[in-house]
Amino acid sequence: MSSQSPYQPGDVTDRNLALELVRVTEAAALAASRWIGLGKKNDADGAAVDAMRKAFDTVSIDGLVVIGEGEMDEAPMLYIGEKVGAGGVPMDIAVDPLEGTTLTAKGGPNAIATVALAERGNFLHAPDIYMDKIAVGGGLPDGVVQLDAPVATNLRELARAKKCDISDLVACILDRDRHKDLIAKTREAGARIMLISDGDVAGVIAATMPNSLVDIYLGSGGAPEGVLAAAALRCVGGQIQGRLMFENDEQIERTRAMGHADPRRVFTCEEMAKGDVMFAATGVTSGEFLRGVKRFGHGAITHSVVMRSRSGTVRYIEGHHNFAQKTWTPT
To answer: DSSP letters along 165-185, please?
Structure first.
């Protein structure tokens, strides 16, 4: 018998695996949907985590979580270093079982369940701190926007590349006090703004979708969420740049301990998510990116997306679920 592993690097692009990823995000979204509008974000997150963990048990991978739920939410985690999957090709996993816990608790838009896969070692190991980000969609010149460039310059160059006026552009920005200056400069430059209360993975991805109203994402959010967004952008040819933001020396030392010699470097999309990448997400509540879960009697309808970087294919999947015929029922 040959000692050579039966699993080859190209196996990550298996089309069946793409569908399995959707089943994982569907399970998390269905479980979280029970908690929409009930004001209990940790219960919603816990339900999504439990459902996603159980769904991973049937996926034929040797998965290692390298981007897990952040400590900022003080909620149950699929923790960094956790093993998932039923065994198979070694894969790194980036997950956010419920991106938008507060959105779910309040019944707000753009809450999603999301997961990304790459071959071992191909995701940036990002600490659970903030990251300054700028992102645009595909089909644009490389480097059309730069994280360190003035807002007005970036908007001017983006408008030129899109052959439109700056006033035609819409920038997506998290509605935070720390973004007051950014918001003011964006408006001063002449662009319109879509302020979102939470959910910057969905916000970044919205900037890449053809039918979205969003043209560019600006501002800071979670670093792990930046890696998840980069995985999606790798699949659609989008661009993202990010720089870690530090509140104290302890965070800097922690980042260096994770292998980042220069903690203030700007990471590109390819540096955050390398190689062959898969990304899947299912809507929990409706938004710019995906429709939310619609529950009825003993079933529900879900709306998901799955992307593959090797083929550049983006598929939207509408799932009709009959709980009476499932081996488990999301709660």
So the answer is: -GGG-EEEEE--GGGHHHHHH
pLDDT tens across 58-94, in order? 999 999 999 986 444 444 568 888 899 999 989 999 9
User: With contact defined as beta carbons under 8 Å apart, do 68 and 83 qualify?
Assistant: no
Quick check: pTM over 0.85? yes
pLDDT in tens, 151-165: 999 999 999 999 999
Please give the single-letter amino acid code of residue 98: L
CA nearest 297: which of 324, 327, 326, 331? Answer: 324
- Can you give the C-alpha Rg of the chain in angstroms? 19
* Other residues' Cβ atoms within 10 Å of the Cβ of residue 153: 13
Q: Which of 30, 45, 36, 35 is nearest to 77 (CA)?
A: 45
Residue 16's pLDDT is 74
The Cα 132–Cα 182 span in angstroms is 12
Please report, for residues 99, 148, 201, the alpha-carbon distance to residue 292 in angstroms, rounded to integers and kept in the order given. 13, 35, 15
- H-only helix segments in the chain: 15-33, 41-56, 101-106, 151-162, 180-189, 200-206, 223-236, 249-257, 269-272
CB 202 within 8 A of CB 233: no
Q: What's the CA gap between 268 and 264, in Å, rounded?
A: 13
CA–CA–CA angle 85, 275, 289 (5° rounding): 75
Per the CB < 8 A criterion, the answer to whether 55 and 111 are in contact is: no
The long-range contacts involving 298-305, CB below 8 angstroms and separated by at least 24 positions, are: 298/322, 298/323, 298/324, 299/323, 299/324, 300/30, 300/33, 302/26, 302/29, 302/30, 304/22, 304/25, 304/26, 304/29, 304/280, 305/279, 305/280, 305/281
